[in-house]
Amino acid sequence: MTPGLRVAVLALAAAVLLHGGVAAQSLAYSLFWQYLESLRVNTGIPGLSAVIVQDGHVVSAIGLGYRDVEAAHPAMPDTPYPLADLTQPLSATLLMRCVERGELVLNLPIGNWVPRDEDPGATLRQLLTHARPTSASGFRYEPARYGVLATPAQACGELPFRKLLAQEILDNSAMSDAVPGFDIASTPAELRNLFDDTVLARYAAVLQRMATPYKVDKRGRASRSDMPPAAVDAAHGLVASALDLAKFDADLDRYVYLRRETLIESWTNATHNGATIPTGLGWFVQTYQGEKLVWAFGHSPDAFSSLILKIPARRLTLILLANSDGLSAPFALGDGDVTSSIFARTFLRLFL
Questions:
Q1: d(Cα 31, Cα 45) in Å, to the nearest integer?
Q2: CB-based burial, 195-206: b 16+ in 10 Å, e otherwise
Q3: 342 and 39 in contact (C-beta within 8 Å)?
């Protein structure tokens, strides 16, 4: 899409939105999908699944390109993808449920559960917010450090972490295309025995439809990636579809998981030495044109990427999943500014 056409599309969408109405909204969604397809092609993403949630309901969903290029299997809204770092908000929800019940205290050090941790004095709050007091800004995005939060979560839930995630989140929100780890077929027997044969068969069927990972070169040419199954922790490992995440998002906004005051705390920027850092508890938080944005992203190099962008005051959410790293690799999302993403900026310009 040329710059002139982009301007025309955005201007038309703005004019349409000003007039309101169901037809106007439908046209806005259609325009966004057209622009999204152009971005997908320009960034070389083989397959992309996208959902928009408004007031707890999926109002528009689409699959673009292919989940498997060689087999010509199209990407669909219910195509499963490994979420990479986008596992973090779901893990944070588990932890904050424990906090609400008084079973965890955020200011306790991780060493209480993991004595040999590299920094046993780091608190649960610091890990949830990616706070690093030793860095100049007090912040450093480190998913690997976040992953250790699985240990206090499973201690609180008295279940292995992947079982806890499945039981309290995936099953509770009827996330039928979600799997607590795409390594589940190769896990030790004691872990597989956490799930009955019917559930394991369903997980296996979901993984058969999982998007194929691709590496995209500088010329936009995609080739299959060899991505071995990874273990599940609080930062990585969950497989889900965009429609699954829409269910979780809707339940979160309906206070199914957490009380309103807990969400407000989770979606408020943390501070370090009086300075604001770009994260809340398990989420990035920032302000754009006077609106609070709450978001998270996933990045699996040369394989997968993901983005969830919420505008809480408007009860509006965008969910994007891709089978290359094109949603995240070109942008410095780990620095805490979602507007560095052309995908996010396009959505915000159309709907804000």
A1: 19
A2: beeeebeebeeb
A3: yes
The set of residues, in sequence order, having a beta carbon less than 8 Å from that of 235 and lying 6+ positions away, is 85, 87, 88, 91, 143, 144, 146, 147, 149
Question: Would you state the structure tokens that stand for residue 212, as one six-digit string?
Answer: 């194929």
What's the token pair of residue 148? 């250790």
- pLDDT confidence of residue 125: 96
Residue 145 tokens, joined: 């450090």
The 10s digit of each residue's pLDDT in 198-218 is 999 999 999 999 999 999 998
Q: Which residues contact 205 (CB under 8 A, 6 or more apart)?
A: none
| Distance in Å from the first CA to the final CA of the chain | 21
Q: CA–CA separation, 149 vs 233, rounded Å? A: 8
**Residue 324 CB neighbour total at 10 angstroms:** 29
DSSP 330: T
Q: What count of other Cβ atoms lies within 10 Å of the Cβ of residue 178?
A: 26
Q: What is the pLDDT of residues 94-107, one digit of tens each?
A: 999 999 999 999 99
The answer to whether 84 and 306 are in contact (CB under 8 A) is yes
Dist. CA 242–CA 276, nearest whole Å: 31
Say how far apart CA 74 and CA 219 lie, in whole Å.
22
Q: Is 56 helix (H, G, I), strand (E, B) or coil?
A: coil
- Digit-coded pLDDT (tens) for 23-70: 567 788 989 999 999 999 999 999 999 999 999 999 999 999 999 999
Q: Which residues, other chains included, contact 64 with Cβ-Cβ below 8 Å and sequence gap of 6+? A: 33, 36, 37, 40, 47, 48, 49, 50, 75
Give the H/E segment covering residue 347: helix 342-351
